[in-house]
Design goal:
about 325 residues, alpha/beta, TIM Barrel, eight-stranded parallel barrel, about 15% strand
Length: about 325
């Protein structure tokens, strides 16, 4: 098992990152919207702020948003409907402690100057709680709508990533595909702690070694335990080979929490219908192989949302940081 493979301390970045990720342990967050909408792609957003506040009160460590510019029929999920940065601003004002994550901003669809300013603004307004996931995008239909090519999104992702990082500097001067800040001006605000954690989602059209070197963490997809163990082990080996410090691994997990705590796992989309005893065991297995955070998604959950959140807080959270 890989329980001690990531015991090296993670480099501190900001308040959200520092409290969310602990070497050798797993924390639990939630993907918004906090509701079931399995019959269609668009959620109702019922009591959406109140449910996020409840999640914070119950002790969940993070709330995760997604960047879904268009309701694409083939994708089948409109996410939380609101623009992620606008919604993050609202949640920053209506919460106090919970980390605010976005998994992930589609960099090729936005100018990096706008991403950098919006992200730093959220980070400052939230007291350093933003965790910025970034990705290249996987919905080809969105690119023609913005008059952008889908094929070169990998190159544009890297250029955007580099541009955003340079914006944390004072009056940066550099040449980039997206523009050439000349050093005689500056972008404000700067992130609360001087920089933001940039977590890369999936492959993002990049070489695995590039991801290991450049991201402050990695957001990957759920797999069987054995397969996930190999993936995480390979990623950490690439970090070590590059001479980098330890970095956290994050994954999502759809759950449908059954009433009976002993209900065995039954596969659903990217997750399981299962009871709390089996969910605890599964999360412990993920912790053992080196996953540091799991973002639970309740889209296919059949029980009342508030009841489910309370059960998770009472029966699952005490076993995880």
């Amino acid at each position: 098992m890989l329980k001690h493979a990531d015991d090296q301390a993670f480099q501190p970045i900001n308040r959200g990152y520092n409290t969310l990720f602990r070497p050798g342990s797993l924390s639990l967050g939630l993907v918004v919207p906090l509701e079931s909408y399995s019959s269609g792609p668009v959620p109702t957003m019922t009591r959406h702020v109140e449910r996020v506040q409840l999640a914070e009160e119950l002790g969940f460590s993070a709330i995760w948003l997604r960047d879904v510019p268009f309701n694409v029929p083939s994708f089948g999920d409109a996410g939380q409907c609101f623009d992620p940065f606008v919604y993050l601003g609202l949640l920053a004002a209506r919460t106090e402690r919970i980390a605010l994550g976005v998994a992930s901003i589609i960099l090729p669809l936005r100018h990096p100057a706008h991403v950098a300013k919006a992200a730093a603004s959220v980070d400052v307004l939230s007291g350093g709680r933003l965790i910025l996931g970034v990705a290249s995008g996987d919905r080809p239909e969105e690119y023609p709508a913005l008059n952008l090519p889908f094929a070169d999104r990998g190159d544009r992702f890297r250029a955007s990533f580099d541009y955003i990082r340079r914006m944390w500097e004072d009056s940066p001067a550099f040449e980039n595909t997206y523009g050439s800040p000349y050093g005689g001006m500056d972008m404000l605000p700067k992130p609360a702690s001087g920089k933001l954690p940039l977590l890369i989602t999936g492959g993002s059209q990049q070489a695995p070694d590039w991801i290991a070197r450049n991201g402050e963490g990695w957001i990957t997809y759920p797999r069987g335990i054995d397969a996930q163990a190999k993936v995480i082990s390979g990623w950490r080996a690439r970090i070590k080979a590059a001479g980098g410090s330890a970095k956290p691994a994050v994954q999502s997990l759809y759950i449908d929490l059954a009433d009976d705590p002993d209900t065995p796992p039954q596969p659903i989309h990217l997750g399981y219908r299962l009871g709390t005893n089996h969910l605890r065991a599964h999360l412990k297995s993920l912790e053992e192989i080196g996953i540091n955070h799991v973002a639970l998604n309740l889209r296919f959950n059949q029980a009342d949302v508030e009841t489910t959140l309370t059960r998770l807080a009472d029966e699952i959270l005490p076993d995880f940081s």
